[in-house]
Amino acid sequence: MRLLLGLIWLLHWLPLPILGRIGDGLGSLLYLIIGKRRRIALTNLALCLPRLQEAERRVLARRHFQAYTRSVLERGILWWAPEARLRKLIHVEPGVPLEQIQSGPTILLCPHFVCLDVAGVAVSLETSACSIYMEQRNKVADAALRRGRSRFHPVKLLSRAEGIKPILRAMREGIPYFMLPDLDFGIKDAEFVPFFGIPAATLTATARIAAATGAQVIPVISTFLPGYRGWKVQFYPPVPDYPGKDLLEATRRLNAFIEDRVREAPAEYFWTHKRFKTRPPGEPGFYD
Questions:
Q1: Which residues does residue 269 pair with via DSSP β-bridges, in sequence order?
Q2: How many CA atoms lie within 13 Å of 225's alpha carbon, on the beta-carbon side?
Q3: Domain map (residue ranges) of the chain
Q4: Half-sphere exposure (CA, 13 Å, Cβ side) for 94?
Q5: Dist. CA 219–CA 199, nearest whole Å
């Protein structure tokens, strides 16, 4: 792991167009040799985008491997490049809404696009934040991730095992909560909510925290700019009338929002995750 981190550190000195093309080439190779993840991606694409022809889904899966690999290599820029270079490469639209964030409890909703770490850096350049963090098994990698995500303003990385109380405390202190809502963690604290028409075990935490704190939910999506020019971080208006009285419907609304964003940048969504691993009772699995 030290060698890998050292390589990523060396590569971060390269101009972004060169680094991005290296990522594309390596991603194409990984698409060919990592059969398990390729099959997961193709299964997800068949479920979520059934109107595409099989050949089109394979092209999209390869592009996803390229995008994901690029994001890993380019993370070196996020972790070690000077602030001036980051501000040149990260294009925030319409700008980090600091005044709005500081107006009251805030959840920054950031789905799993491959560049989601860019959104975290864009926020930490301007203000503190907190987020749930899954500790890495490798201690060297864990330390690098923690340092990289807390370079500027402090970022509180909270353990999922601690539950919701540390999140509520941080939000009461005026710290926005960076919420990643769209992984399958099993049925605990989740409900089966349609995602591209497929029942998916979806955390209801966003709706429950918003209901408990009166927090506004501001979606933020990070994607690549064309031509290897950097990244776009787009902040959306707060979700209106959220969560309302029906927490299940509130969760469905967020899944529908994520679906729309996926259609805009389909290669950059996290297709190699088993999003539909947990099935309703009696339903067969998709990934066997």
A1: 113
A2: 17
A3: 2-268
A4: 6
A5: 22
